[in-house]
Amino acid sequence: MDTDFLLWYRQADGEWQELALDEGDLVIERGKHVGFKLKLKYSRNHLKLIRKGDIVWVEDLNSTNGSRLDGELIPANLQVPMSPGQEIQFGSVTLKIKKQESASQEEFEVDPTKAG
Q1: Does 61 fall in a domain?
Q2: In a domain, 106, yes or no
Q3: How many domains is the chain built from?
Q4: Are 22 and 4 in contact (CB under 8 A)?
């Protein structure tokens, strides 16, 4: 099975929204539209999510007010592994990573001798 990661995000008390978190880096910065839009009043380059296979890392890009992972301050410029369900907070923004298993094509094929 392949693993897909979803990035869930919301600003203040807004509705949760989701975005597929693909392999590679996703930088969350002020004034840029990077697959989704957050109204940031924070550092120009605030946070980076790094997906390498089945592991997701979070890195605070030396932001002015910092970022927190489950309430703990993330050290600047240090990649910290995060697990699905953990929350990243900065300012009024909350991010979560969720993991979903996507079944391979073979798992959905029907054996015609057993159909019935």
Answers
A1: yes
A2: no
A3: 1
A4: no
Supply the CATH number for residue 60's domain: 2.60.200.20
Q: Is the pTM of this model over 0.85?
A: no
Pick from 42, 95, 41: which is nearest to 70 by CA? 95
Cross-sheet strand order for the sheet of 87-90: 17-21, 2-11, 93-102, 87-90, 68-69, 72-73
What are 4-35's pLDDT values in tens digits?
Answer: 899 998 888 889 988 889 999 888 876 554 44
Residues 78 and 55: their CA atoms lie apart, in Å, by 15
Give Cα separations from 92 to 42, 68, 113 (angstroms).
10, 12, 56
Please give the structure tokens belonging to residue 71: 């309430």
Residues 57 and 79 sit within 8 Å (Cβ to Cβ)? yes
- Give a yes or no: residue 105 inside a domain: no
